[in-house]
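User: Quick sanity check before I run a bigger batch. Here is a single chain. Can you write out its predicted 3D structure?
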Amino acid sequence: MESSTTEKVNCLIIGSGPAGYTAAIYASRAGLNPVLYQGIQPGGQLTITTEVENYPGYPDGIQGPEMMVHFEKQAKRMGADIRYGLATKVDFSSQPYKVQIDDEKWMEANAVIISTGASAKWLGIESEQRLNGYGVSACAVCDGFFFKGKEVAIVGAGDTAAEEALYLSKICSHVHMIVRRGEMRASKIMQQRVLDTKNITVYWHSETDEVIGDKKVEAVRIKNNQTGSLKEIPVSAFFVAIGHQPNSDIFKDWIDMDEAGYIKTIPGSSKTNIEGVFASGDVQDKIYRQAVTAAGSGCMAALDAERYLSEKGLH
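Assistant: Done. Predicted structure follows.
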């Protein structure tokens, strides 16, 4: 490793959603001189949502991308060094920890905050991406409210899909639930709740053929994978609930994770199994997954990092 391509920093933050930017704000104010690398999707998942109405302090709501610009500006104003670049490899075998950016430059850091987030899994059809933000969403809790009193569709068969279908059934006039097999993966109690809810219709053995609409979602065409028959259902929104993938692959040789790849943190803290490496936001939270909870955990990570560096005499 040549010294010419290595840069030493006190605190390195990887990722730039609400968790990463909040960590940068707190770490900057604490005098840790953090460097933040934005990753593959600067601003994180909020940059693919449109209206955000449930974040405190915005009484009239705000567009997701605009909100992330605010977060970034605030972190910069506090003195954070925010850079474009993707962490591609890490070496946590000894202090200072090493993180490679864009497969070429190495960073050395006394403390590392992982805020790499999670990515929604998509079905992979063209119309789903084209209408993303125009009626197609991967978060019913975030966006269900905008379709109050309307008919909507949801695809998925796990607990999250069942929970989101039930959530939507309280807001929307009717929920059309598309399930690929003849049964759900969801727990028995969740399945029963779905089946007992009068305004949820479950389509078994069905797959999404196409989301229909020019500027916004107007209908969904589903295919019965036993008979091959097609059916078009008029809906105003299409929710994809087939799971999330935490962006944690590069850490798997070093950091303890659950079977789905979410980073394990010591309860009540942002600490991982490696001293001086902290995790915040959706990469370690598969339960809440909200901007406000991610921001709160980013604050925790910065405070934990500050305490750690102080105890080590590095701050």
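Residues 3-119+244-311 form a domain with the FAD/NAD(P)-binding domain fold (CATH 3.50.50.60).

User: Great, the batch can go ahead then.
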